Structures are given as structure tokens and as C-alpha cells.
Amino acid sequence: MISADQSPLLVAAFAAYLASTLFYLLHLALRRPLLWRGAFFLVVTAFALQSVCLAERWFEAGYLPVTNLFATQFFFSWALAATYLYFEIRYRIHAAGLFVILLNLLLLTSALPRDPVIPPLIPALDTPLFTLHIFFSFVGYAFFAMAFSLAALYLLQRRIGTDLLPPLPLLRQLNEEAIFLGFCLFTLCLIFGSIWAYVAWGYYFSWNIKGVWSFLVWIFYAGMCHAKFVRRWQGTGYAWLSVAGFGVVLFTYLGIGLLLSSNHPLN
User: Fold this and answer.
1) Radius of gyration (Cα) for the chain, nearest Å?
2) Which DSSP category does 1 fall into?
3) Where are the alpha helices (DSSP H) in the chain?
């Protein structure tokens, strides 16, 4: 059920993402180029609507509003759509976009029933370092989610070998690129987060559970950037690592914020 307080722009964006999913499914069944073009147009439309909604919330709050569960899911969805558009425009992955848009729909389906209220910002967060930390964190997460999607498609393509999906070498290349870009962005997230922590609390790193697991995410993906050069981890092994890595990301993002006590709660 969609909350009555949700922005009509966000509801319209959700409808456009849903319609794009249907167009992608029809493309898989009928193999008509016009259908994937329609799906892509709908994704661009949905992303534009979501971007306007984000700009409105940012202007209203006076800061990047990513401080509760609704806001993080909304921003994660926006970042994932932007990541997908990057790969679609650059590589023309077409039907491979279906899996990514389904992930996006899951995020928005979970977010829409929640209260979209923008809470006041506590003084410790009122700094550009907070904005940079959050921005690079979720865009990095989005690239890791994209890598997970590409890895799942790689494993599927390896099993069924269809011409509807990109060839295995391209899927492998895109997966490795998504991991590398996500790692670079997440590294910036940790750098700005450390500087922010020092300014706010006088230390660069603390042993709170969120900080520890964020460092574990960084270590895991640093290892993946190396693993692509190790023969036994190339191809299928790398795809399974991408799937496992996204599980670690989800626990760091949702598991800790919702189930455990930390300095990054999701209310």
C-alpha cells in the first residue's frame, strides 16, 4: 500500500519503472526492438521524475535527506537507476536491464508505504562532509548492486546461453568494471566519513559495529579488485564473489541499521 503522503512525482516514477519492467518482459517474449526502446524511455522518464523529487526534498530540507529508512531506500533506488543508465548508454545492455529494474522496484515497493517525513538534522551531521560521505556510500552500493545483477546474469547466461543476454566476456567485463567503480566510490565514502568523524568527535575511526562492517566491505571489494587477475577466480568464481559481496553490503546497510545498535540507525 502506498502512503497517502507520498509525492505524486515519486508515485509516477514508480509507475514508470513498473511499466518499463513490463516492456522488458514483452521484449524478452517478442524480441521487438521497439519494446526495449520503450522500456529505456520509461526508465529515463522515471529517473527524471525521481531526480525532481529528490531535488524538491533536498531544497525543502536544506541538506541531502538521507537520514531514515525511507530516505535511504529512495536514494539507493535513485543511485541504482543512475548506475543502470550509465551501463545502458555506454554498453547497450538492453534486456540485461530487466534484473536491475526489478531490484529498483523492490527498493521502491518497500519504501513507498513508509513515512516520507524529513527529520531535522542533528548538529553533528550538518556539514558538507556528511553529504559527501552519504552520496559516495550509496552510489558505491549501487555499483555493487549492479555488479550483483551482472553476476547473476553471467551465471544464467553460462547455463542457458541465450542471445537475449550479452555474451559472457562482456558480462564479465561489466561486472569487473562495476566492482572497480563501486570500490573507488566506497573508498571516497570512507575517506570523507573518517574526516567527518574526526571533525565531529575527534577520531578518524571507532570500533562501532557499523564502522567495522563498512571496513569489511571495503576489504572484501579490495580483494575482488585483485581477484580478477587470479585465474581460478575469473569468470564463474568472480560472479559468485559478486553475489556474496552484495550480501555483505545488504547486511551492512540494512541488517546493522535495523537489527543491531549502532551509530547509523535506520528509523
Assistant:
1) 19
2) -
3) 8-30, 33-61, 69-91, 97-111, 128-160, 168-201, 209-227, 236-250, 256-259
pLDDT confidence of residue 4: 46
Q: What single string gives the DSSP state of each residue in 4-60?
A: TTS-HHHHHHHHHHHHHHHHHHHHHHH--HHHHHHHHHHHHHHHHHHHHHHHHHHHH
Q: Which of 38, 12, 10 is nearest to 24 (CA)?
A: 38
What residues have CB less than 8 Å from 16, skipping those under 6 apart?
42, 43, 45, 46, 49
**pLDDT tens-place string over residues 209-259:** 888 889 999 999 999 999 888 888 888 999 999 999 999 999 888 877 665
The CA distance from 226 to 235, in Å, is 14
Span 150-194, pLDDT tens digits: 999 999 999 998 888 889 999 999 999 999 999 999 999 999 999
| Distance (Å) of CA 238 to CA 80, 87, 122, 172 | 21, 19, 41, 8
Which cell numbers hold the place of 212? Answer: 567495522
Burial bucket for residue 103 (CB in 10 Å: 0-12, 13-18, 19+): buried
Domain range list for the chain: 1-116, 124-267
pTM check: above 0.70: yes
